[in-house]
Amino acid sequence: MKKYLLITMLLLATTFKYDALAIEEGDVFIPIARYMEAGDSDKLSVWFADNLQLDVLGTINNCTRNQARLIMRNFFANRTPKEFRIVHKSARPPMSYASGDLDAGGSQYRVTIFVKSVDGRNEILQIKIEQQ
Question: Which of 4, 41, 114, 128 fits as disulfide partner to 55, beta carbons 3.0 to 4.6 Å?
């Protein structure tokens, strides 16, 4: 039993180290993509700036972090994500963006995410979701 507990703890430590390493190397989009694919609006919202812009299927909202979390929760509740794959990334500090393909609710969406590094913290400033 102790052996299984030790193996589990090592696996968890490796996972956390991988997330931290990815962020240190500048690939902030690894954890963000994971949360998009999981449809986890709560964990995704941790990355939101205090105020951000959401463009969900043509409806543009300039909103607070909490409002954005609720909008994303509603989107994921109506369209359960199956897969999210980053297809393009680019950066020019302090800004970076990624676009990816989201398979959710039987439809395909193009998602564009803009991130800004502010005081050593990466914050999502804009998410745009378009149906393909």
Answer: 128
Q: What is the pLDDT of residues 34-68, one digit of tens each?
A: 999 999 999 999 999 999 999 999 999 999 999 99
Beta strand 121-131 with 48-56 is parallel
Dist. CA 83–CA 103, nearest whole Å = 5
Please tell me the least confidently modeled range out of 17-31, 35-49, 92-106: 17-31
Helix (H), strand (E), coil (C) string for the chain = CHHHHHHHHHHHHHHHHHHHHHHHCCCCHHHHHHHHHHCCHHHHHCCEEEEEEEEECCEEEEEEHHHHHHHHHHHHHHCCEEEEEEEEEEEECCEEEEEEEEEECCEEEEEEEEEEEECCEEEEEEEEEEEC
